[in-house]
Design brief:
1 helix; globular; about 110 residues; eight-stranded antiparallel sheet; mainly beta
Length: about 110
């Protein structure tokens, strides 16, 4: 089952650019006029601690305008000092996603995880 970020109808993520410690960009290999795929990337360098830190996620717009499917997630494992990539959700990924959503809401970006 795919995981979806649902944005408020007035907030297209391609128009947000930078929100707090996150920048929203197009993938390097995408066409300039294509806004159906985006990358949300942290501008904070990885921290050397015992936590997993969300670094980026790639999202793709679905047939429903406000719904964006999470395609892949990159996070830093502070214990083993390496970046990991996942296409699957587990408890720690959900926790990281909820933290991202809370941070976006601090800047009045209305988004939910489904």
């Amino acid at each position: 089952m795919p995981h979806i970020l649902v944005f408020h109808p007035d907030e297209h993520p391609a128009h947000l650019k930078k929100v707090g410690n996150w920048v929203i960009t197009f993938p390097a290999d995408s066409a300039l006029e294509c806004t159906s795929q985006l990358i949300i990337r942290s501008v904070v360098p990885p921290q050397m601690n015992r936590q997993w830190q969300l670094q980026s996620l790639e999202i793709q717009q679905t047939e429903v305008m406000q719904h964006w499917e999470i395609i892949s997630i990159s996070y830093f494992d502070g214990t083993h000092l390496k970046e990991l990539h996942s296409e699957q959700f587990h408890t720690d990924v959900v926790t990281m996603m909820n933290s991202l959503i809370l941070e976006l809401k601090k800047y009045d970006v209305d988004v939910e995880l489904e």
